[in-house]
């Protein structure tokens, strides 16, 4: 049995993905802080909503899906109820496996995961790292849980904060660019709906070519950039405004913020 502790946005997305992948609602339990949330999850997925202590006691795999700031309190609550040897999977940004291990019974296997919101459409990017007591079997169990909702990559834990900045937050950067491009369409006199459709389809087309062509992004961009044409006029402005440096600094700032989260 899998328990999702703190089934908010990410926890619910994983929960629904696991059910789409064919697990039965009776194989899952979840916990929620508010009663309305518990009722909604029960009605939407037909799963049992229990207390954190009950979930910790009955599940073989515990998925911790609360915000980093709530992790200390959650572990203090469930720590005494986790039987030895249970697999604990954390989805939280910044929280290290040692932070979790220190608050659970000695020897608890912990796998740290960073996923992203495309879990909703089975296109997530998830990265996994083993804690001190997690072995191949535990990594494999985490991968089995996450593979139905997208791609999974193993990385050393030292790269987890970087992965959080790159792929955990990644969808937000693309949405931000889409917003800005739609604004540009409005500036050029287009109706908002038309601008949105043009930008979204361009994003989808570009993403599919990136994923399926095997070409490096530089070559794909060169394919769009005609000598003396329109694209290079835009690229010159992006370069002049330092967009590449801004992206590097933004993602580094996200990585640094991740490092701060474990300390509260
Ligand atoms: N939103 C995102 O794009 C991503 C979030 N994450 C990570 O996933 C985790 C969850 O994030 P979200 O789903 O966005 O947050 P959220 O706020 O939607 O979900 C957390 C849920 O936990 C509940 N909760 C808090 N303490 C609890 C407790 N003691 N017992 C039971 N329930 C409790 C809250 O009421 C809330 O419903 C975070 O640690 C975040 O760093 C990871 C990747 C992407
Ligand atoms: O913004 C955040 O802290 C979370 C972690 C990765 C994406 N969202």
UniProtKB/TrEMBL annotation:
Subcellular compartments: Cytoplasm
The Pyrroline-5-carboxylate reductase dimerisation domain, residue ranges: 157-261
Function: Catalyzes the reduction of 1-pyrroline-5-carboxylate (PCA) to L-proline.
Pyrroline-5-carboxylate reductase catalytic N-terminal domain location: 2-94
Gene3D superfamilies (alphabetical): NAD(P)-binding Rossmann-like Domain (3.40.50.720), ProC C-terminal domain-like (1.10.3730.10)
Coiled-coil intervals, chain numbering: none
Family: Belongs to the pyrroline-5-carboxylate reductase family.
HAMAP family the record matches: P5C_reductase
Keywords: Amino-acid biosynthesis, Cytoplasm, NADP, Oxidoreductase, Proline biosynthesis
Catalytic activity, as annotated: L-proline + NAD(+) = (S)-1-pyrroline-5-carboxylate + NADH + 2 H(+); L-proline + NADP(+) = (S)-1-pyrroline-5-carboxylate + NADPH + 2 H(+)
EC number: 1.5.1.2
GO molecular function term, any single one: pyrroline-5-carboxylate reductase activity
Protein name from the UniProt record: Pyrroline-5-carboxylate reductase
UniProt pathway: Amino-acid biosynthesis; L-proline biosynthesis; L-proline from L-glutamate 5-semialdehyde: step 1/1
Annotated Pfam families: F420_oxidored, P5CR_dimer
